[in-house]
């Protein structure tokens, strides 16, 4: 019988054996197992710009407030289409060199939202740049710090075609004749953030663009929902409100209002549907709107646009799924010509 009170040598030896055993079980063996991890078949490697953006992400210590891990519990359903697996990190977890391990990206705090699927939740470059310049410009209650050192203030006449001008609302930047231009570091960081998209797993697993969409679809018909069983208001909040705001007023100087919009209220919804399907980049005084044709179904677009055409004082006929399908076919035919 060991007597640790008097036999100190046995105490030290036992502690050493336990330490070595635990190290092997919880560190060494899992590390060897991770070496066998393979990428998901359709997973795309990081581009050179995205890798550099990852370096900036680490240098700015973004993982102090953001996680990149979706756990297999109900409360994490809002962040991604499925629970994370080791293969999701295959390309971002490559060793920096022989001596240095890859940076830790998983994070442990959710002061800000999880970023596992942010590239699909928010694919707009303009939104990300404005959010970096001043987070309160797009999320009024945000506690995220601003990153002004990633932007330059220059004269309007000095802007070149290679400069990325950030559409900043007047209440956050009101200097006539001057513009806010994103630095190379800001653009690279946004490239990395936009690359954060879960890859669909083989075997038919669905990677929803809207994480809560499946629950919305399964709730069926209820008050305020379209004939297709989709809640246009909730879908709008999940996909569009970050830019156009819950009240439909948008953000002056950055994202246009939908309340009172002639395009939204037009009896013929063709132009509105084209903008949603193809995106919009025809107004230099506003940010670019990304295309949602590959991200939303006809039924989802119909539900969202119907909500937009019947809210905030707007009064236009509802949009049917068949209407969206018709315009989508027209757009595809034009692109294929």
Automatic annotation (TrEMBL):
Keywords: Heme, Iron, Membrane, Metal-binding, Transmembrane, Transmembrane helix. The chain crosses the membrane at residues 12-32. InterPro entries: Cyt_c-like_dom (IPR009056), Cyt_c-like_dom_sf (IPR036909), Cyt_c_oxidase_monohaem-su/FixO (IPR003468), Cytochrome_c-type_DH (IPR051459). Residues 48-197, 227-312 form the Cytochrome c domain. It comes from the Bacteria. GO terms for molecular function: electron transfer activity; heme binding; metal ion binding. This is Cbb3-type cytochrome oxidase, cytochrome c subunit.
